[in-house]
Amino acid sequence: MLNFVLCDDNPSFLHGLEIMLSKLLIKHNLDAKIGFKTDSTSKLLEYVSSNSVNVLFLDITLKDKNVGLNVAEEIRKINKNVQLIFTTAHFEFVMEAYKVNAFDYLVKPISQDKLEETLLRLIDYIDNSNCRFIKINGSTFVNQNDIEYIKKEGMKLVYCTKDAEYESYSSFTKIMNVLPHDFVRCHKSFIANISNIQHIETNTNTIFFNNGSKCYIGPSYKNNFMEVIKFGNSSKNLDITNHA
User: Fold this and answer.
1) Nearest alpha carbon to residue 71 among 97, 89, 105
2) Are residues 27 and 71 in the same domain?
3) Higher confidence at residue 67 or residue 222?
4) Distance (Å, rounded) from C-alpha 136 to C-alpha 142?
């Protein structure tokens, strides 16, 4: 599920944007939510620091000339993959928005047609952006960094993230070619995102992830999987124990 966040110091505009965006998410049957809205930059930074945010609508000027741009720079340090869409009543600041790699800008007042155009371009970009998002089905996109592992249950695949599980009717054979390199087959029923592994117990062949969940290493996959870990394809040093 895509998580949208809105930040603007004008309560009336913020409320209107929320209503328009909510209608469009429903209209296009998108698996997305508006997870947070605020007129406070400090609350915004706090939320982004502790939650997975995919899209941020942010006022460029806020209460001062370019506070929004400064906040965007801070957010980029926290989450480099968030899609920034700036809103502004001051066209002269638009070019500065691209300094922080903004996806788009919307000049106030914003029409629903213009918002819809931007939203559809965004979804198309996400759909074709294999380096950031994985498409589960026609309307569901999940940030690859949020996925701990993928498990096979009969004819279904279950994508297990930090916060939720998403199902699709597919097979490991079909998805392996489109998954990023961080996703490694570790069992006949599991594919692990090695970027999110916290700990591996080799005596029990158990993989533990950052959120406390776990999956398992199958005997026929163990050598290859441990070779991937051993030769540094993981993004961090892992705690690997063997009590045998």
Assistant:
1) 97
2) yes
3) 222
4) 7
Question: How do strand 55-59 and strand 165-169 relate by DSSP bridges?
Answer: unpaired
Whole-number Å distance between alpha carbons of 203 and 85: 48
- Supply the pLDDT for residue 107: 86
Residues 6+ apart with CB under 8 A from 48: 5, 56, 75, 78, 79, 82
Torsion sign (Cα): 90, 95, 97, 99:
negative
Predicted TM-score of the model (pTM): 0.63
3-class state of residue 154 by DSSP: coil
* 142/122 Cα distance (integer angstroms): 14
Segment holding 135, helix H or strand E: strand 133-135
Domain count for the chain, please give it. 2
Residue 214 maps to a domain: yes
pLDDT at 244 over 50: no
Together in a domain, 232 and 212? yes
Question: Residue 72: which of 100, 38, 112, 41 has the closest Cα?
Answer: 100
Distance CA 64, CA 132 (A): 32
| Domain region containing 192 | 144-241
Same domain, 78 and 102: yes
